[in-house]
Amino acid sequence: MTLVKVSLVWGTLNLLWSFSRGAPLVCVITKSCILPCSFSSGSDPVLHWIHMTAGDRPVHSFYHNQDQLAYQNQNYRGRTSLFKDQISRGNASLQLREVKVQDEGRYRCYTSTMRGNQEAFVELRVIAPVDEVDLHQVKNTLTCSSGGIYPEPELTWSTSPPSDVAPKDKVSVQQTDQLLYKISSSLILANNTDLNYICTISTPSGSRKATMLKQNSMDVTGNEVTILCVDSNTLKRLTWRFNQDQVILTRTRTEVSVSEEWRQLVKDESKSGSLTLKDFSYDHDGIYSCEWIDAEETLITNIFLRKQGDPEKIKERNIIGAVVGVLVVVLVVLTSVFLYFKISKVKKSNRKNKPEESAGKLNSSEETPQAAESSRDETTQHFNIKDEKEMDYEEE
Ligand SMILES: *[C@@H]1O[C@H](CO)[C@@H](O)[C@H](O)[C@H]1NC(C)=O
Ligand SMILES: *[C@@H]1O[C@H](CO)[C@@H](O)[C@H](O)[C@H]1NC(C)=O
Fold first, then answer.
1. Beta carbon of 86 within 6 Å of any ligand 1 atom
2. Tell me: the pLDDT tens digits for 97-155?
3. Is the pLDDT confidence value at 316 over 70?
4. Closest ligand 1 atom, CA of 38?
5. CA-to-CA distance for 107 and 244, rounded, in angstroms?
6. Which ligand is nearest to the CA of 189?
7. Rounded distance, CA 146 to CA 135, Å?
8. DSSP result, 241-296
9. Which of 187, 221, 361, 369 would you call most buried, defined as having the most Cβ atoms within 10 angstroms of its Cβ?
10. Are 98 and 92 a contacting pair, CB within 8 Å?
11. Which domains does the chain have, with CATH numbers?
């Protein structure tokens, strides 16, 4: 009974105390922040700003009408200043620049004048909001990640329309030397679904999401094709990729850069994110993704482009193939016939003094009339020409 009473009173006291402390001062990482403090002005003030959890050394001191930084906590070197012109009016506010996570905590503002001493406290919170959420697909694994976040973020997956999605493993959270958090999570994409995947990373101060829209496919009929990204007027950065990891081009508000390999193929691209490719061939079939990053979110679209089989073209290719095949066969036949006659000719000249054997040879070749028939005209002609040439050569 008494215990309950005591804890109730204690709780109430605590509550009153935190009310009196006021809401914490929220400072954004790397930015400047003003820690407020006022006092009853008097002559020759002494001011000390102390970070209560960071040791005895002051963050900033002022007396004898000037800054006194000989004993300053070195973590604050070059990052603090007072509003000198305001001190005489009782304003002891401290400006802190390039805020770090380590600056978090409770600060005491101690002031002393001929009229007495005063103390004021400031509770400083640091936030590093989620800046960009990266969504990256490798094969059927989708990975969502971000970094440079404080305090510890949370990551959630969802789909639209809603479905059961669960990350592959536990969400991974790491803290860097600067006390900032990195977070990532992967999931396996369902097969052939009509789902948009959404990854949301949030901290108490806000959240950001990245969405991968379901894949579309498109048949390319001509040599040129225009594909669209997302249209939004707050573009921060846009990247077109081929088959997930090959960068085609990136665009920021001020710059466009097309990668070397794609320069021949990119005909046009626009601020709204559309991309026009020329000389589109079967080799360029694949997934074209556009990653659109704006002030609020990241959006990824995937379009599967497939050069349509043009029936006329295919027929043409088949005809060409057949012609080439026939030519190859003819060439092989001609070569072998030529070689055959050449060899027999050599044999003949070797046995010039044995004419009866030559005659026998001639007869034996006549024994296979079908083979001779199959390529008669060209072979005979060809043979004649070759024969003449050979004769010329022999004469020389
Ligand atoms: C002190 O002066 C600064 C700079 O002019 C101002 O921003 C701040 O609000 C003042 N603080 C108080 C407590 O008067
Ligand atoms: C998708 O299909 C492949 C094989 O076709 C299978 O191995 C895999 O488990 C399937 N994935 C899901 C999420 O159903």
1. yes
2. 999 999 999 999 999 999 899 999 999 999 999 999 999 998 889 999 999 999 999 99
3. no
4. 13
5. 49
6. 2
7. 9
8. EETTTEEEEEEESS-EEE-GGGTTTEEEE-TT--EEE-S--GGG-EEEEEEEEESS
9. 187
10. no
11. 20-127 (2.60.40.10), 129-214 (2.60.40.10), 218-293 (2.60.40.10), 316-395 (no CATH)
User: Coil, helix or strand for 79?
Assistant: coil
The pLDDT value given to residue 232: 67
Atom of ligand 1 nearest to the CA of 89: 14
CA-nearest residue for atom 5, ligand 2, is 191
Three-class DSSP category at 198: strand
Q: Which residues contact 47 (CB under 8 A, 6 or more apart)?
A: 60, 61, 62, 63, 82, 87, 92, 109, 110, 111
Q: Ligand 2 within 6 A of 195 CB? A: no
Residue with tokens 């939004």: 232
Q: Which residues contact 139 (CB under 8 A, 6 or more apart)?
A: none
Determine the distance separating the centroid of ligand 1 and the alpha carbon of 109, expressed in angstroms.
14
Cβ 288 vs Cβ 262: under 8 Å: no
CB of 36 within 6 A of ligand 1: the answer is yes
The answer to whether the CB of 188 is under 6 A from ligand 2 is yes
For residue 190 and ligand 2, the question of a CB distance below 6 A is answered with: yes
**Six-digit token string for 116:** 């007495």
Neighbours of 40 (CB within 10 A): 11
- CA 179 to CA 148: how far, in whole Å? 9
Amino acid symbol at 21? R
> Residue 189 CA: which ligand 2 atom is closest?
13
Give residue 386's pLDDT: 41
CA 292 to CA 251: how far, in whole Å? Answer: 10
Residue nearest to atom 8 of ligand 2 (CA): 191
| Vertex 375: Cα angle to 371 and 380 (nearest 5) | 105
Look up tokens 């009974």; give the residue: 1
